Amino acid sequence: MAVLLTYCGTEESNAAANAAIAVASKMRTSLLVLLSEDEQLGPDNRDPEGPLWEMLGATDIPFEIHRSGPGEQISEQVIKLATELECELVVLGLVGKVGGNWTLGPQAQNILLNSPCPVLTATAN
User: Fold this and answer.
1) Pairing state of beta strands 101-102 and 97-98?
2) Would you indicate the residue range of the signal peptide (predicted)?
3) Which positions ≥6 away from 89 have C-beta within 8 Å?
4) What are the φ/ψ torsions at residue 90 (nearest 5 degrees)?
5) I need a surface site. Which of 7, 8, 22, 57 has the fewest CB within 10 A?
6) Tens-binned pLDDT, residue by residue, of the chain (125 aa)
7) Which residues on adjacent β-strands are paired with residue 119?
8) Cα gap 85→97, rounded to integer Å
């Protein structure tokens, strides 16, 4: 059993990583990280995974890294991994407000509606 974090290098992903690490620590379980293949270098050409490695390096929680595969929707990979590894919780970052209204993208919506376990969402705000 583990906590599954989806991570793509955004501020929302960093908020989700902080939440996932805190929950995994409290639950005394491991952390699985699914890195999105859609990562790109930030505006200052920094590695988008840099903050994640810093967070993981500051904890003693056992973790395992998985990379998303090409051509498959990230939400489908999350659901598949959470099912196969019998995860206790999925943690993902949400962009949240667009034009003053809360909205969910199709990937987040699919995870929320079809996850085999509870889902915790985090925002950067």
Assistant:
1) antiparallel
2) none
3) 3, 4, 23, 27, 117, 118, 119, 120
4) -110, 135
5) 57
6) 899 999 988 889 999 999 999 999 999 999 999 998 654 444 444 566 888 989 999 999 999 999 887 888 999 999 999 999 999 999 999 887 667 777 788 999 999 999 999 999 998 87
7) 90
8) 32
The string of DSSP letters for 35-48 reads E-TT----TT---T
Question: What totals of helices (H) and strands (E) does the chain contain, helices first?
Answer: 4, 7
Q: Where are the beta strands (DSSP E) in the chain?
A: 2-7, 30-35, 63-67, 89-93, 97-98, 101-102, 119-122
Q: Which token pair is 24?
A: 């995994």
CA distance 78 to 90: 8
Vertex 40, ends 113 and 21: CA angle to 5°? Answer: 55
How many C-beta neighbours within 10 Å does residue 65 have? 14
Structural domains in the chain plus CATH codes: 2-122 (3.40.50.620)
